[in-house]
């Protein structure tokens, strides 16, 4: 109030106002650095911001930042998501949703599909194609007894004392972001390039990051040979992908390959039915072109498109 009264007589108020503007600008720059425009849903953006802001506390204060989180535990559990912190050996340091985990190692914990969650997190935080450390698995809500689908993002941070932490948070019943399959497909191409044919088994393994919920990364060659099927094991079904049609007769794979003659990747929209829906919904095929064992090869996945509220 004193500053306002002085402002009426002079320019004293200009200093705090300019500082405030500078601070807001710095905040906006930080937000731009974590690339919210990757996401189409507000819930996803809110979760990334929530986890990133908490990670900044540990980056500045190290282990003392963990004490700050514990003293303000209620702030880090909302109706939508909660925060957790792990050391790199898989030991939980802070858990706003399930405090009984604190001090315990979750390195060997798996979900019902066999996903070793901490191993997936450790791979995600060091994966350049997955800048926000996304991992998808099934879990349960605090105080509940049934499984729900979950997607969690993570940031690896180093405190001023050199201590390293994984700061994460997840959302139950997550929206299916296009960014999620972009990560899975681009990563699959990376391991194909690095490991060759053994990578096909990794991509097909339901316990790995290339398969989650209704998403399945698949691989096929330019002549139609399927290396990893988008549906069932290829030995049980002779699937001619280029001739497959959607619910209105369009051939999304054939159209996508036409587009890929002049670029490395493409998104193709098609129509499908979904569980519990009588009408049609839009889905999106993400397909990338690469070379595998000297042959033109395509790696892709399918996800739902954002639906109107």
Please describe what this structure looks like:
The protein is globular, with a radius of gyration of 23 Å. The longest helix is centred in the first third of the chain and has 20 residues, at about 15-35. With about 300 residues, it is of the alpha+beta class. About 30% of the residues lie in helices and about 25% in strands. A hairpin with a 2-residue loop joins strand 6 and strand 7. The protein folds into 3 domains: about 1-35, no CATH class; about 40-170, 2-Layer Sandwich (Beta-Lactamase); about 180-305, Beta-Lactamase (2-Layer Sandwich). Helix 6 runs antiparallel to helix 7 (about 200-205). The strands form 3 sheets. The chain has a 5-stranded antiparallel β-sheet, with helices on both faces. Mean pLDDT is about 85; it is low at about 1-30. It has helices at about 1-10, 15-35, 40-60, 65-70, 115-125, 180-195, 200-205, 250-260; strands at about 80-85, 90-95, 135-140, 145-160, 165-170, 210, 215, 220, 225-230, 265-270, 280-290, 295-305.
Tell me the Rg in angstroms. 23 Å
Low-confidence stretches: 1-32
CATH C-level name of the largest domain: Alpha Beta
Provide a count of the helices.
Answer: 8
CATH topology of the largest domain: Beta-Lactamase
Taking all residues together, what is the mean pLDDT? 87
Element-by-element helix/strand order: HHHHEEHEEEHHEEEEHEEE
Structural class: alpha+beta
Q: What general form does the structure show?
A: globular
What's the architecture of the largest domain in CATH terms? 2-Layer Sandwich
Q: Please state roughly what percent of the residues sit in beta strands, choosing from under 5%, 5-15%, 15-25%, 25-35%, 35-45% or over 45%.
A: 25-35%
Strand order of the largest sheet: 2-1-5-4-3
Q: Could you describe the largest sheet, including whether it forms a barrel?
A: 5 strands, antiparallel
Question: What is the distance, rounded to the nearest whole angstrom, between the alpha carbons of the first and last residues?
Answer: 43 Å
């Amino acid at each position: 109030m004193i500053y306002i009264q002085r402002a009426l007589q002079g320019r004293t108020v200009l200093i705090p106002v300019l500082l405030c503007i500078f601070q807001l600008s710095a905040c906006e720059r930080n937000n731009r650095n974590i690339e919210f425009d990757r996401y189409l849903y507000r819930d996803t953006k809110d979760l990334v911001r929530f986890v990133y802001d908490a990670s900044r506390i540990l980056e500045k204060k190290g282990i003392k930042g963990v004490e700050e989180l514990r003293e303000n535990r209620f702030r880090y559990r909302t109706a939508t998501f909660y925060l957790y912190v792990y050391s790199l050996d898989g030991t939980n340091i802070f858990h706003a949703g399930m405090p009984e985990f604190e001090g315990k190692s979750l390195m060997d914990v798996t979900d019902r599909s066999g996903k070793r969650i901490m191993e997936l997190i450790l791979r995600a935080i060091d994966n350049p194609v997955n800048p926000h450390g996304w991992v998808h698995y099934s879990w349960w809500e605090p105080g509940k007894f049934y499984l729900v689908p979950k997607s969690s993002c993570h940031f690896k941070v180093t405190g001023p004392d050199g201590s390293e932490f994984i700061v994460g948070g997840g959302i139950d019943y997550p929206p299916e972001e296009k960014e999620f399959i972009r990560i899975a497909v681009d990563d699959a191409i990376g391991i194909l390039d690095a490991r060759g044919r053994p990578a096909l088994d990794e991509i097909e393994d339901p316990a790995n990051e290339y398969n989650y919920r209704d998403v399945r990364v698949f691989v096929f060659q330019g002549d139609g040979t399927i290396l990893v099927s988008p549906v069932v094991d290829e030995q049980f079904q002779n699937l001619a992908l280029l001739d497959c049609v959607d619910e209105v007769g369009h051939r999304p794979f054939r159209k996508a390959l036409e587009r890929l003659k002049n670029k490395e990747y493409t998104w193709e929209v098609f129509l499908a039915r979904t569980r519990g829906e009588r009408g049609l919904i839009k889905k999106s095929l993400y397909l990338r072109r690469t070379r595998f064992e000297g042959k033109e090869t395509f790696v892709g996945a399918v996800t739902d498109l954002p639906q109107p509220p």
